[in-house]
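Posting here for the record, re: iron/sulfur cluster.
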Amino acid sequence: MVQSQVKPTTTITPFEQKLDRPLTKAPITTLQINLGRKCNLACNHCHVEAGPNRTEELSPAVCAQLIELIQRFPQVTTVDLTGGAPEMNYGFRPLVEAARCAGKAVMVRSNLTICLEPGYEDLPDYFARHQVHVVASLPCYLENNVDQQRGAGVYSRSIQVLQRLNQLGYGQDPALRLDLVYNPPVPRNAEFSLTQSQAALETDYKAYLQTQFNIAFDHLFTITNLPIGRVKQYLQGKGLFSPYVQFLESHHNPGTVDHLMCRDQLSIDYLGQVYDCDFNQMEQVPSRLPSGEALTVAHLLQANRLDLLEQIQTRPYCYGCTAGSGSSCGGALMDA
Ligand code: SF4
Ligand code: SF4
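Prediction output follows.
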């Protein structure tokens, strides 16, 4: 693990100046749809600042536009549903079914515990029936760490749901993919460290979960805490925001840039506005057409084209995606 103590300074190189060429879009293959901020949990690392009292949700009109988008463009191979807890939105099942009917892979970013809430108990069977790829957050394989980040009892409920998914064939049947996501703890002092090696941590997770609970899963995705949302507020409160961004910058790895998730995806919010990634969505940094206008789903449908963007909108928090082995919603971008 790389550790370093960064001296406080305000100098941060603009991300685009760090690159040897402009960061541009590749052909779009993935639609990541954020169905809203509502969630049954309220984790302290949540970059979406989701929780049970949030009311922002996908409207029926935008849901209909998204289904049209999914059905119209064969170049989209993957529909990635996120939130909040995306399963809580009424549009979740119509989007899953439209995407599967159109032959797309569907991923759901699930906190697992939603599957034990009243009215959602059939979700594991639903996922299996539609061969939904489950990407489940489990910020650590140890109970105390998970309950500290996500709330008391979350670990044991997550384990219960993982066991149910295994019973249905997840983690064994190649058509039923189950991946876990590791979130590092939010830095509490200026001794920052890069996220551990994904391969090594996956080995530890697999050994522990197999031995203790007989749980199997496919892969572990490790991600870096980006200094946005609740993490940003926390770091600012401790005077650690600029030092943390500077730490990330000091570990910028140019080899990650071609693999950044913003290159071939569109991130869409519950209002139908388009962003280069979920992080830009949370920070309200919209994708912009060459004319400077902010892009919406309505523009894509009207133009009958997905590849309308040239430049990716970058900010200093982009260093969180390029530090060390890199980071994305699909885990590290390179081997350690
Ligand atoms: S489960 Fe996910 S979306 Fe919900 S509060 Fe936690 S991190 Fe945020
Ligand atoms: S935050 Fe990461 S994924 Fe988003 S635009 Fe920046 S580099 Fe790309």
